[in-house]
Amino acid sequence: MSRRVLVTGAASGIGAEVAHRFVDAGDEVVSLDLKDTPVGVARHVHCDLSDVASIDAAVAALDGEFDALCNVAGVPGTAPAELVLRVNLLGLRHLTESVVERIRPGGAIVNVASIAGYGWADRLTALRELLATDTVDEGLAWFAEHPQAGNAYNFSKEALIVYTMLMAPVFGENGVRMNAVCPGPVETPILGDFEESMGKENLDALSAFLGRHATPADIAGPVLFLAGPESAWINGHALVADGGISGAVLTGMIPPPEI
Predict the structure, then answer these.
(1) Assuming Cys at both sites, which of 50, 122, 142, 164 could form a disulfide with 86, CB separation 3.0 to 4.6 Å?
(2) According to CATH, what is the number of the domain 4-184+217-241?
(3) How far apart are the two ends of the chain, measured CA to CA in Å?
(4) 29 φ, ψ (degrees, to nearest 5)
(5) Helical residues (DSSP H) of 7-118, grouped into ranges
């Protein structure tokens, strides 16, 4: 049976591949993106995740109910720290909580996080404080008052992983699951930005260890799995899709990359 699916970031990279997979399966895809989305989706709605007014306007323009929301859009660590947090967490949260009541029982939300968020447990107290804020402005004020060590991208993805775990049981009360996919480096148009912010030598070492970086298709499969009925008993989970990097680090085979 055909489903109705919302996909952010559908104009390029992982988001485009996710949208195409749903379309190929016969599903109706509505894209939310700053840029025009490739032909194939049922409808494109302009949405700037850094702008609450733009998110609200996009939500107001949507019609009917949906079976899944795939939050794929994001910005790399080369962007200003406030923008990274706005898009990768706070705008995503605002959009998600604005549309969750329009997701049918049995539906799903899938957030694309990153293995760059692997340190979430070490900052759990701070992350819970950030996530206790109610609005984008409150979240930004907390961030300004509590400077975090390291790359803002890593922090934003740590927060997204914790948000996924914290809110999954809450949304689950209405029959909506929420999970995350955590990729390693992916061959997308912004890979160069990640090389700049995380160190090209680090990403090259990961590619050499695995033989290649991931492709958008490698990540789209797990996203569709978590958005579909086959994963009906998986909730609040951060699924690592990194070709084996995390396992090698956790077992001491290779040292953790300095990203």
Answers:
(1) 50
(2) 3.40.50.720
(3) 43
(4) -110, 130
(5) 13-24, 52-61, 81-85, 92-99
pLDDT score, position 19 = 97
d(CA 71, CA 7): 6
The reported pLDDT for the residue numbered 148 is 95
Q: Which of 22, 66, 143, 153 is catalytic?
A: 153
**Nearest C-alpha neighbor of 111 from the set 128, 131, 133, 87:** 87
Distance CA 229, CA 224 (A): 10
- CA 249 to chain CA centroid, nearest Å: 23
* Maximal C-alpha separation, the chain: 50
Residue 158 and residue 100 in contact, taking contact as beta carbons nearer than 8 Å:
no
The predicted pLDDT at position 208 comes to 86
Residue 71 has pLDDT above 70, yes or no: yes
